[in-house]
Design goal:
about 35% helix, about 450 residues, alpha/beta, 6-stranded parallel β-sheet, 15 strands, 2 domains, 4-stranded antiparallel β-sheet
């Protein structure tokens, strides 16, 4: 991350994180997590002790909270459960969280109704927090416009700023909704509702097939999911849902396997290519790969089935990035190139920020250099309510990225292994809190980052 010039990360995103501890995970097909903290403040202190190369602005994840309180139950919370979730949000906000993050596209968060999320957002609002969301539908569930309206409603009713995480329109049949969605947000902003978005500059998204299956299939956790995948009638319905979303995302020829531990040779191939290799229909092949991956993950043998979907239009990416209220983001975690690791990681992990500077500023001239830098720095810190970072001004923390505007470029590709684990070029120095951390082609070993707290 720091090789891109990123000196501040916002973590977690999409509603998921490590706090609070999720109890009884073993019964839901996952390993138990052993930790030595019990409060949000202790969680931040533990993170602080390990050291970090970058600054971290922590959020509280709705998905983790809901799973902690309700498991994977597809229902509304009782009043007691809602109160417990609100109490956890309050504790986190008092402990220094900057706001609430949700991933309403993913289970168990997708089981919630708007009113449930709104109640938690109101708690974050009382402590000056903001709301950021992987919205409920980015275009492959049939109502991206309604999904944006939900974000606006939560911001308006809860009385807090809101942000749409990794803003995009996934399905080709909804690409023509881009102007309507942008106008919808700008109309809300004109009424004084504080809405922003962040975006990574690639036409492909990255996720796993569990985000594609019908929501009911995951109720109760992964063991229950496996039972349904092995049930003759229910498996037909799950397969139909999986296939429908795959088609919405461009069809099997546009789905690149980025991780599949059961057979690493599939990594870097499309679903169509694997299906041809297996002599099967793409829908049948995809379902079988998914069923096998769930089976092995339940037994603890492997985890992970990742996909990259080429499902966005370049025109819409450019329309969005031009908006003054759209920030730049990576939608990734911190990555370290690992020789021999067979995975086709999304190039955004290594190249989002230099890609904007090299391709959208220098080559395409979609943005001016100053505007691009603002979207990467002060716009983001202002969104978080951090006013002593994001500008090079006397008295502020010295988080500084030095780049060559004529050379800076991303080098990571959509290919497996070495080709997509490439650091960018043209960023010779990165300084974090006044400490030189990237010096030419090496990391100095400095761990000058800080865990920030909202006060």
């Amino acid at each position: 991350m720091i090789r891109q010039g990123v000196t501040l990360i916002v973590f977690p995103n999409c509603g998921s994180g490590l706090y609070p501890v999720v109890e009884d995970l073993a019964g839901r097909g996952r390993g138990r997590l052993e930790v030595d903290w019990s409060t949000y403040e202790e969680y931040l202190q533990k993170t602080e002790k390990t050291g970090t190369s970058v600054n971290v602005a922590p959020l509280i994840g709705f998905g983790t909270i809901r799973r902690y309180v309700m498991g994977f139950e597809m229902r509304d919370p009782t009043q007691g459960e809602l109160d417990k979730m609100k109490g956890l949000v309050e504790e986190a906000m008092k402990g220094g969280a900057f706001g609430l993050t949700t991933g309403l596209r993913y289970v168990p968060q997708s089981y919630s109704k708007t009113e449930e999320v709104l109640e938690l957002a109101k708690v974050a609002a009382r402590y000056g927090g903001f709301y950021t969301t992987h919205q409920r539908d980015e275009g492959d569930r049939g109502d991206p416009v309604g999904s944006v309206k939900e974000v606006i409603k939560i911001a308006e009713k809860a009385g807090l700023p809101a942000n749409i995480s990794h803003f995009k329109i996934l399905s080709k049949i909804f690409w023509n909704k881009c102007d309507e969605i942008l106008e919808l947000i700008e109309e809300a902003r004109s009424r004084g509702i504080d809405i922003t978005a962040d975006q990574y500059p690639y036409p492909a998204s990255g996720t796993g097939p569990e985000a594609w299956i019908p929501r009911w299939a995951s109720e109760g956790g992964r063991r229950r999911l496996l039972e349904r995948l092995n049930d003759p009638e229910l498996s037909k319905q799950i397969k139909a849902g999986l296939t429908e979303v795959m088609e919405q995302r461009g069809g099997p020829e546009h789905q690149l396997i980025s991780s599949y531990p059961l057979k690493p040779s599939y990594v870097g191939k499309t679903i169509t290519e694997v299906a041809t290799e297996l002599g099967k229909d793409p829908a049948d092949a995809f379902f079988e790969l998914y069923r096998e991956s769930v089976e092995k993950s339940v037994t603890g043998e492997i985890s992970g089935f990742g996909l990259m979907s080429f499902n966005m239009s370049d025109e819409n990416v450019e329309k969005m990035i031009k908006k003054p209220w759209v920030m730049i983001s990576t939608d990734s975690s911190i990555q370290v190139p690992t020789p021999g690791r067979v995975s086709s990681e999304h190039p955004r992990n290594y190249g989002s920020y230099p890609r904007v500077l090299g391709r959208y500023v220098r080559e395409k001239k979609v943005l001016g250099l100053e505007e691009a830098v603002r979207k990467m720095t002060s716009l983001e810190t202002q969104r978080l309510g951090i006013f002593d970072r994001g500008l090079i001004v006397k008295g502020m923390w010295a988080d500084i990225t030095i780049f060559d505007p004529e050379l800076v470029i991303d080098k990571a590709e959509y290919a497996p292994q070495e080709e997509n684990q490439r650091y960018p070029e043209g960023i010779p120095y990165v300084i974090v809190n006044g400490i030189l951390t990237i010096d030419g082609d090496r990391h100095t070993g400095a761990l000058a980052g800080k865990i920030l707290r909202k006060r």
